[in-house]
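Hey team,

Filing this mostly as a record. A colleague (T.K.) asked me to run one chain through the structure pipeline before their review meeting, and I want the input and output archived in the tracker in case anyone asks later how it was produced. No errors, nothing strange. Just documentation.

Input sequence:
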Amino acid sequence: MSEETLFTRIVDGEIPSYSVYEDDTTYAFLDANPLTPGHTLVIPKEPYERFQDVPADLAADVFAVVHALTPAVEAAVDAPASTIAINNGETAGQEVAHVHWHIIPRFEDDGTGPVHALFEYADLDEDRMASIAAAIRENE
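Output structure:
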């Protein structure tokens, strides 16, 4: 586990938040700097830095909350869709070293495209694809 983070201070009530859900392991609240109305963060209460650091059973609990909250968030702001995301590590854009899921309501006129718009497609031949697939299987 990581050291105390901004999010653990929110969970502990040291920093105010607009809480939308809480149980023994999970806390959800509106993002203080929302990308769209209703942008919600869902976190494990314990401060794990990266997704792979979270024990599998806890990750399942937290994701069950993401699953349950997504339609509630969409309904609350009349959003026809949402993007669910994790920035896993600083290079990926993670700004708080406490793993968190984003539920970002999406609207027809929000000016943002799909996650694929963040990247240029990698040009990989069949040998490279097979090599990557094998390396993933070996590191499972």
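Quick notes for T.K.: The beta strands are 19-22, 26-30, 40-44, 81-85, 101-106. The radius of gyration is 17 Å.
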